[in-house]
Amino acid sequence: MTDGTPAAREQPLILAADDDEDLLALVAFRLGRAGYTVLQAHDGEEALELARRELPDLGVFDVMMPKLDGLELTRRLRADEATTGMPIILLTARGQDTDLSEGFDAGADDYLRKPFSPQELSRRVQSMLGRR
Amino acid sequence: MATVSGTSLDGMAAVAVGRRKWVQFGVLGGGLALCLLYLVLPERLVFVREGLIYVGLEVAVVAAIMLGVAWYRPEVPAAWLYIAAGIASWAIGDAIWAAYVMDGKNPFPSAADAFYIPGYVLLAAGLVIAAKRRFAERDTGAILDAVVFVAVVGLVLWIYEIEPMRHGELSLFATTISIAYPLGDLLLLAVVARFMVGGAWQLASFRWLAGAVALALFGDVSIALSDVGHSSLSQRWSNMLILAGVLLFGVAALDPSMRALTQRVYSVAPIPRLRRLVLIAVAALVPAMVLIAQAVRDEPLHVTAVIVATVLTFGGALLRWGGVMGELERTIGRESLLRQYASELLETSGRERLAHLAEQTAQEIVGQGSAELRLTDAHTVGDDPRQVVAEIVVRGERVGELVARAPSGQILRLSEILPTVTNELALALERESLLESERETAATLAEQNEQLRELDKMKDQFVSTVSHELRTPLASMIGYLEVTLDGEVGELNDEQREFLEVVNRNAGRLNKLIEDILFISRVDAGRLSLDPSWVALGELGEASVVTARFAAEKKPVQLALAVEDGLPLYWGDPIRLTQMLDNLLSNAIKFTLADGTVSLSIAGNGDALRVEIADSGVGIPEDEVDRLFERFFRASTGSSAPGTGLGLSIIQSIIQAHGGTIGVRSEVGVGTTFTVDLPLPGMPGAPSQDATEVTT
Q1: pLDDT tens, B232-258?
Q2: B330-343 pLDDT, tens per residue?
Q3: Which residues of A touch B478 (CB under 8 A)?
Q4: φ, ψ (nearest 5 deg) of residue A89
Q5: Chain B, 487-516: which have a CB under 8 Å from a chain A CB?
Q6: CB contact B575 to A (< 8 Å)
Q7: Which residue of A has its CA nearest to B575?
Q8: At B393, which helix (H) or strand (E)?
Q9: CA dist., res. B284 & res. B154, Å (int)
Q10: In terms of C-beta density within 10 A (0-12 exposed, 13-18 middle, 19 or more buried), how is residue B138 classed?
Q11: pTM confidence score
């Protein structure tokens, strides 16, 4: 369970975005079990809308998504004043160093290569939110 | 200047020419002999002299002219026939005179004069006809030259021959008749001068004619001068000179080049030599000099005549010089126009623009007229005398033509200049087509480049798409398995757990395989990029050993590590090197039976670092050692151990990317030792320290 966050929420809100239904459900399940409320988005545009509306406390985004990919989504959230401070973890199937540095350049805080361990993801989310 | 010479001859005619030459010189020789005879015959043989010899020779000359006309068939026989008529007229006059002389009389004027004077006119007419026929263009310059010349001679004649006649004691009628002779001479001289400055001197026939007129003139002048008391030349001599002159008319007609005298000549009047211009300037001064001479010698001054002559000569000279200057200016202007045109051609590109430039330049050159340039197959027939057609030929192929229309006087000049314009254009067009093909090649290359870049991009996209497509389902599988095995969705009984572990294990294998395949495909695509930095190879070795401990303890297999002291730092990609070490160690452990040993040693080796991994495993048969690094190759001895067969291929790629080598020694049943040599920085093949990324 998480520490109390300075948000007005009971539970921290996490926005998860992935075009793969199964992975999206897996992330929601695991993070839900860890005590977070998880919003689910199926593509970048939906994620952007939800992010601006709900102002989540953290984002977990797949990189390769249709309509708006994870990198561009990260950039836009960073550019927007309301969402600029949101911690972002990117999930990527591309493991090249260039891809990773691209992610950090876009403004992500962390990344996880696919296939990833849901436990590992949960730990990272915890530590990121714990810092807040 | 272009002139056309003589007749066209075939073999048989060549013989005839030879014969005719003999006749010509026979006539000349015989005639001269007769002249001589005329000179020396005693006074009493008047009939023979004046009658037979003199008139006879003149008649013979008329016959000779007719013969010449018959032989050579000039285009305009009229000219020669007039000349013949003129001489015939003189012959009649001489016959009448002979009659008088034989009677002992010497009247002046007489009926003979009625035939003499027309003779001059007929001769002059014949020469004028020839001149009009011969000279296609009105050569103003030559005419001016002739005018100046005649003015000077005329002045002299006037002062020394005609004026005395006027002040003589003869009647008006007689005076008029006697003046007619020098005027006739002047007329003949004028026409001959026209021929001469028109460049007929090359023709032998003309030279004879000029000689004829000169002799006749000489003779006439000497008679006139003796009449007024100035000359001491006897009348016989004077008559003989005239007779010799007449003879030369005949010889002229018998010369093969007589035909050319009436052949039309197309030539461009050249800019006259300085010599001629100076002569004309001098001629302009002659009247003044004559006046001065008269004043000095206290002779009566012929001011009017001198003024008239001065006007003519000065005017002629000025016009001539002015014309020459104008011509020079035009030529220079044309030269600079052509130069400008040539340089503009160099700066222009595009067929249409080049053609347009050429047309404009041609238009400027033509001036009053038109010039049209067409780059088509159209052929203009060049029959029109007011038209010049210049063809444009590029590399032997006719690509167009330039057609210019202009007054006929300019045609010849244009036909010499316009080809220059078209030749320059042809060169420019050739250059243009070369440039075009260069541009085409460049464009094709650029296109191919683009295509290659596109292909490259597609390859990249393919690799990343495949990567994504393979890893995503696997991520689901592994993720869900983990959550399930962690008990997050309920307790699992032992069997369930066991079965799910199997699934998990295989998912892991699949993952590894996908990683290996993606790695290999990146190497193939030349996309293996190193991210080198300074690394302590010893430390990497330690870390790999730690990683391998778990698998080693399971078998169990003993792990040993030996790192040399004081090894230099190595410039290489730590992640890849770790991958290499991990792979080598896991291979060694896999192929070693329980209670075996695997040892890793890292030491210096001259210019390189040597990494050795030795195992006491099953070994590799000798005949399979060479194929060891092939993809998907599994040694027969290790068929029971799991693996993809890609491991060594990957290891080799990594080593090669660092410029190193790998070798293997093995013995079945005893063990295998892999030896890797990695060249230190600065050695050939080692990753360069300038780039932070090295792509194979």
Answers
A1: 557 778 888 888 999 999 898 888 888
A2: 888 888 888 888 88
A3: 115-117
A4: -115, 130
A5: 488, 507, 511
A6: yes
A7: A97
A8: strand B387-394
A9: 13
A10: exposed
A11: 0.49
